[in-house]
Amino acid sequence: MHSALLLAVISQLAACDALASVTWRMPNVPEEGLSDITFPINIANAPHTSGYYFAEQFGFKNESHVGYTGLQPRADANNQTIIHGVFSSFITGSTSEDPNCSDGADGGNGVSCSFEFVGDYADTWNMVVNTTGGNTWTGTAVNTRTGVGKHIGSYTLPDSVGGISDSNFGFVEYYPWNSNPSLTCADIPFTQGTLFAPISKSTKNGTATGTVVGSITSCQDYITKVDTPASVEFTLE
Ligand SMILES: *[C@@H]1O[C@H](CO)[C@@H](O)[C@H](O)[C@H]1NC(C)=O
Ligand SMILES: *[C@@H]1O[C@H](CO)[C@@H](O)[C@H](O)[C@H]1NC(C)=O
Ligand SMILES: *[C@@H]1O[C@H](CO)[C@@H](O)[C@H](O)[C@H]1NC(C)=O
Ligand SMILES: *[C@@H]1O[C@H](CO)[C@@H](O)[C@H](O)[C@H]1NC(C)=O
Ligand SMILES: *[C@@H]1O[C@H](CO)[C@@H](O)[C@H](O)[C@H]1NC(C)=O
After folding, report:
1. Nearest-CA neighbor of 234 among 199, 217, 37, 209?
2. Are 236 and 190 in contact (CB under 8 A)?
3. 80: Cβ below 6 Å to ligand 2?
4. Pocket lining: 135 vs ligand 5, CB cutoff 6 Å
5. Residues 207, 209, 210, 215: is their CA dihedral positive or negative?
6. 116 lines ligand 3 (CB under 6 A)
7. CATH code of the domain containing 47
8. Phi and psi (nearest 5°) for 6?
9. Residue 2: pLDDT band by 50, 70, 90 thresholds?
10. Tell me: the pLDDT tens digits for 127-150?
């Protein structure tokens, strides 16, 4: 009960930095947690410039800190469109020898992995998080049109940490704000992106799709959302 409350408070704090957020839920999660979860994300109309992070958080059984995965737009390079994929852990004792990963996450404990790849913005990307032996977790961005996956990173969690739990948050963050608090809502540039309900192969019922509900957490005059049972599209201008 207390650790569930603490988890809720920690997750809320993380979501508070965001402009907009979603709450996702997955039904029929086994006692030991999920061994895989996929968060589809589409940033087709996002400008090709740094600044926004379309992210999904996931928690683990027997652990109060979370992991993240998501996409950040980047400027085109050599006439090719570039997408920055993120996969991280805020869990103390996380380790990684993956060349795409480094120790620490936002200045705290954990591991941060990222990989920039040539990718088509028009396509929806499946951000897959799954176990790949022991308590090692791997993040992959899979192009849903071509089926080709881009490895983002992998990390190993302490043995005490269980599988992925049944609910958490996603968010849209404009990260220049974190280092420049004088920015106002009028300064946020246009972007658009869709966070879809998660999918898992490891529920008690096998493959299942969860739910997602959006909320606008600040700059209400500049942000709109379109909710469907399976997705939330945010537009910021
Ligand atoms: C959580 O911890 C308890 C107590 O140590 C243990 O019995 C249980 O198996 C753990 N659950 C998971 C999913 O690791
Ligand atoms: C980018 O594409 C344009 C139009 O196709 C072409 O003129 C230009 O040379 C290309 N630039 C590079 C760096 O490939
Ligand atoms: C990150 O992973 C990708 C895919 O495995 C690989 O091509 C790339 O070289 C890695 N990046 C680094 C810095 O090792
Ligand atoms: C997930 O894990 C398995 C190994 O257990 C691996 O073969 C698979 O390709 C992984 N990644 C994806 C995107 O499913
Ligand atoms: C999922 O499994 C639970 C029990 O494991 C069952 O009660 C429920 O009806 C199942 N739901 C679906 C949609 O199959």
Report:
1. 217
2. yes
3. no
4. no
5. positive
6. no
7. 2.60.120
8. -60, -45
9. very low
10. 999 999 999 999 999 999 999 999
**Containing structural domain, residue 71:** 3-236
What's the number of domains the chain is made of? 1
Question: Which has more confidence, 66 or 181?
Answer: 66
Q: Which residues contact 94 (CB under 8 A, 6 or more apart)?
A: 109, 110, 111, 155, 156, 157, 158
Query: Residues in the chain, how many?
Result: 237
- Per-residue pLDDT tens for 155-184? 999 999 999 999 999 999 999 998 888 999
Ligand 3 pocket test: pick from 115, 143, 155 the residue with the most ligand atoms within 8 Å of its Cβ: 115
pTM beyond 0.85: the answer is yes
Q: Which atom of ligand 2 is nearest to the CA of 79?
A: 1
User: What is the number of the ligand 1 atom nearest to the C-alpha of 33?
Assistant: 13
**Phi, psi angles (nearest 5°) of residue 133:** 105, 125
Q: How confident is the model at residue 48 (pLDDT cuts 50, 70, 90)?
A: very high
Q: Is 178 exposed, middle or buried (0-12, 13-18, 19+ CB in 10 A)?
A: exposed
- Nearest CA to 37 among 6, 66, 2? 66
> From the CB of 79, is ligand 5 less than 6 Å away?
no
Which residue, chain included where needed, has tokens 């983002």?
Answer: 152
What residues are in contact with ligand 1 under a 6 Å CB criterion? Answer: 32-33, 61-62, 162
User: Is residue 13 scored above 60 in pLDDT?
Assistant: no
